[in-house]
Amino acid sequence: MRNKILYIDTETTGMDCVKQDIIQLAALAEIAGELVGEFEIFCQPYNYDAIDRKALQVTGYKIEDIKEWHKPQTAYEEFKMFLNKYIDKYDKADKFVVAGQNVSFDTAFVRAWASKAGDKYIGSYMWRNEIDLKTFTAAARAWGLLRVPDLRLETICAALGVEITKAHNAMADIQATRECLRIFRKMFERFKDIDLKIL
Q1: How far apart are CA 112 and CA 123, in angstroms?
Q2: pLDDT at position 138, please?
Q3: What residues contact residue 184 under an 8 Å CB cut-off, 6+ apart?
Q4: DSSP assignment, residue 42?
Q5: Exposed e or buried b per residue across 53-80, where buried means at least 16 C-beta atoms within 10 angstroms of its C-beta
Q6: β-pair partners for 40
Q7: pTM (2 decimals)?
Q8: Contact of 33 with 20, CB cutoff 8 Å
Q9: Which residue stretches of the chain are H helix?
Q10: Which segments in the chain show pLDDT lower than 70?
Q11: d(Cα 36, Cα 52) in Å, to the nearest integer?
Q12: C-beta of residue 4 within 8 angstroms of C-beta of residue 86
């Protein structure tokens, strides 16, 4: 089975994945280290009443703009079509490992999004284990390998020399996140030639 990674980032209407919703989702599909597909969609929330105005200030999106975007059910179905290009949902061993920055936040929103769309089987596409840039960076900082004052994506990108074109845009964020993780991955590749008994 070839290694499959789904890099994912969302912009949302708040911090509560049950009450609030995804309004932008970007994903990069990688198989055996190669980028094979990109997906991006903007969509309306299920619940306009739960929108946190501070969340919109971060993204710069306005409610009048959001109302012109895809309906959430339609957006979710398009996302599923993207996943179906790379995953056989009937094969229990064929799933993406999801990667991102503070990625548990994004996967929680994706799972809630699926539930709101009436889909109980989003787990057919994604393993529960995740690759988190924030965790790698926290470890590197604790070990004295990387000097960063905080674990924000912009800070990590600056430290690793990765350009981020537009912070708090899901596609720009996930592209930068993937590049940062690729740098960490190169560090781990040094272990290939070492006979580690723990592997």
Answers
A1: 12
A2: 96
A3: 133, 136, 140
A4: E
A5: eebbeebebeeeebeebeebbebbeebb
A6: 26
A7: 0.93
A8: no
A9: 53-59, 63-66, 72-84, 103-116, 133-142, 153-160, 170-188
A10: 1-2, 191-199
A11: 35
A12: yes
Its sign, for the CA torsion 148, 154, 157, 158, is negative
Residues facing residue 38 across a β-bridge: 28
Phi, psi of 34 (to 5 degrees): -105, 135
Q: Which two tokens stand for residue 70?
A: 């895809």
In angstroms, the Cα distances linking 127 to 64, 111, 191, 196 are 36, 12, 25, 26
Distances (CA, A) of 17 to 6, 87, 108, 131: 20, 25, 6, 20
The answer to whether residues 104 and 132 touch, using CB atoms and an 8 Å cutoff, is yes
- pLDDT of res. 127: 95
Classify residue 180 by burial, with Cβ atoms within 10 Å: 0-12, 13-18, 19+: buried
CB 7 within 8 A of CB 30: yes
Helix (H, G, I), strand (E, B) or coil at 188: helix
Q: Order of strands across the sheet with 34-42?
A: 34-42, 22-31, 4-12, 96-100, 126-132
Amino acid letter, residue 123: G
Report whether 171 contacts 40 (CB < 8 A). yes
